[in-house]
Each structure stands twice: as structure tokens, then as C-alpha cells.
Task: structure prediction
Amino acid sequence: MRGIVSAAGYVPWHRLDRAAIGDLFGTAPGTGTRAVASYDEDTTTMAVEASRFAIRSREGNQEPTSVLLATAEPAYQEKTNATALHAALRLDPSVCADDLCGNVRGGTGALGLALRSSDPLVLVATAGIRTGLPTGPDEERGGDGAAALLIGADTGTNGPSPLLAEWLGGASRTEEFLDRWRSPGSSRTKQWEDRFGESVYVALGEEAWNAALKEADGGTGLDPAGINTVVVCGPHTRACASLRRRLGVEQDVFADDLSGSVGNTGAAHPLLLLTRALEHASPGQIIALVTLADGADVLLFRTTDAIAKHDPFRSVDTQIEEGATGLPYGKFLAWRGLLELEPPRRPEPPRPAAPPSQRNRQWKFAFTGSRDRSSGALHLPPQRVSWDSGALDEMEPAPMADSAGTIVTFTVDRLAYSPSPPVVFAVVDFDTGGRLPCELTDVDPGTVSIGDRVEMTFRRLHTADGIHNYFWKARPIRDGR
Result:
């Protein structure tokens, strides 16, 4: 029996009020908010956060044996983006990491591949940063976020840990037709007339739905009346609404698609909504995931008794509630590269060099220091010589990414180079030992105080010559965990 071992979502801290778009352009005001990735986030960093949450939420300690990263907005082309995720999680070199990039259907596709795989524990990470031209529907309805699932077999078949939900089967329908497309390098997605996409998607969705119900649970089939939660999502809003009316289930079983608070996160959205459904589920409930994107995919799951003990490290609802509203629309456009601002009058940072990045990858990507074996003294960054005992090369790795800390002093720098000034630097004392000066993120400079509790997060420092300089920053702990 194969299924979901752990699940987690990541919703960025910033929110854009949709009404701000209409205020600037004099158009009809939108309603609700959309989640916005910060200037130092991309789909790779968000996939790292969702994956860290999923790993910390799991029962047991087995590490993933393979990694799949799906996004329609990869940080790199040609270069594999999943390798940075692999490095940030300190996975063994024997763990294969692959991308499924460039399309919205990739998230559901990666999940299907993992469910059909024989690998003991597959990490499926998805992320999306959705945008479009100002005042367009993609800008307003889109959202940014990520989700990660650990897929494996139940403990009874030598799997890693109890399943939260067993996979009952599913069905897919694929057909070549022109609905949405975006040329490489373009910031705008184009779409054919709504009615055409609706006519194709609804027919494919009904076929996949009926086939999945018929073939589910080892061929015994499922009655739609017995399904407790139905998740329907996809970038074609009109088609999703039409399909909901044709599935033969009561309207109250449909899950909130988070369109009013987060927006559609593209390739990440099916897994983000599935994660939230699991966080609200009880044992023995059936959850159906229906995705419309270049075809139709239906996946069916039944929650197990383990779902009652599932304690997500940070739930989707908690992250939505903690979001900071009021992001200026002009700043949103600047972060998206749609509005060019006067750059800081400081030398721009050089591109990261490949050799030192590779040599120091455990520090740079996984935030791993070194600890003196004899005295326990911690070194950040890692050192060969202990400051405490003077021992040479008597160190062991000290992973620090999950260590919380306390701000002992800080400064707000309005002169340092930054894509989004000012820069807040702080000196952090970690609970597990060690002190480090580092940059803060997802913070209001006016509210920072000595004694604030912080945690580490994987971010992008800057990009030069097309090379993303990834490292770790500190952000406030807002939920006490």
C-alpha cells in the first residue's frame, strides 16, 4: 500500500490587496488578497521551505531516497533546480534529484510518478510564482506558494512510517489543444478564448472523474456520494467552476480553492490544496484531487488513523493568517521586474564563483557549521581549528538550519546594496550554541527588537550574470514553533 507519508505547504509572508491594482489604474477594484513571494524568494527557495516543513512534520526519521521538483517558473533553465533543494536538505549524494519544469501540470504529474514509483520515500516539491501584465487576470488571480509531499509505502511493507493517506488510484486524460502558452523569456501568459478551453476541459474532466471512480480501490470502485472532500483546481477558472457542477457530489464537499486569500499558485496549487485538505481531515475520509491543466488528472486518497495524530509543523491556515497585508503595489511590480527603479548607488555584488561555492556547499546551501568533538564548541561558519581547544581537524558537522535563535543586537542599513532597501542585519545567538551576524527577511524594520526570536530560511541574496547566490537569512518566529 502506497500513499502520503507527510505533507506541508508554504505561503509567503507578504500579501497584495487586489484593490490596490484598481486604485492605481482606475479599474474596477478586485477583492481579497494574493500571496506574494518576497524579492529574495524564487521557486527554488519556496520549494526548500515547503520540503523542510514536510520533513519536520513526518513521523520517523528516514530521509528521502529521490527528489522531484515541479514548477512552471524555474529559477534556471538547463541547470537542474532540484540539486539546490537536494543540497539545502543535506541529502546523500546517492539521492537522485530531477526537475519537472516549464508547465503547470508538472505538480500533479510529479505526484503521480511518485505514487507509481518503487522508491522507498520520494520527496515531491512544487512551487509557483504567478504573475502577468498589470491589470491582467493572471496578475490578480495568481498567487505565490509551494507544497511538498513525502510519498512512500506503509510501515507494514517495510516503508518509512505510517501513511497519512493511502492512494486509492486515479485516472488521467490528455489531449493536445491550445489553451494557455508562454514563450521562453516572456513575463506574459496568453490564453485562448475562455469558452473554447471550457468545452475541452469539462469533457476531459468528466471522463477522468468517471474512470477514476470506476477503477479506484483495486477495481472495486467508489460511489461519489462517499467522497468527503473534493479539490478542483487549475488555471482555467471558468472550466473548474463548470466541472464542479457535473461531478455528482454535494457542493459542500468542495474544498476552498484559496482564491480569495492566496490566489492560484500554478504547479504548486494542487498539492497546496491537497495538503490543506489533509490538515482538516479525519481518519477514514476520502479525498479527491481533480486538476485541469493540459488535460485532466484525478487522484483519490483515503486517510488513515495516523491522520488523527498528524501535527503539521506549520499549517497552511496558520501561514495564511500570519500574512502581512498592505504590500505597496509599486513594490510588487518592482519585485516582479515589471517596474524599473533607480538602483542603489553602491557597487553591485559580483557573481558567485563556482569553485568556492562547491567547496563550501554544506555551509552555503545546508547551513552546516562545525563542532569540536572534544569540547563541543560550535563554529559558524565551519572552521578547521577549534577556537576553544585549538584542535586541528577534529570537527564534526553541525546542521543549524532548524535551530532557532535570539536577536542580541541589530542595525537598519539604508546604504547597503539591496534590491529592496533597507537591509536589516542582526547578530543572532542560537539555542544550540553559536553566534552569527546575518540578514533578516520578512520583517518590518520598525518592529525589530533585541530579544526577538528568529529561525533560519533559505533565500536568494542576489543574482549576478544569471547566477543566483543562495544562502540563509533569519526571519521572525510568529507562531511560537
Notes: The domain at 362-476 is CATH 2.40.50 (OB fold (Dihydrolipoamide Acetyltransferase, E2P)). The chain has a mean pLDDT of 94. The longest strand covers residues 453-464.
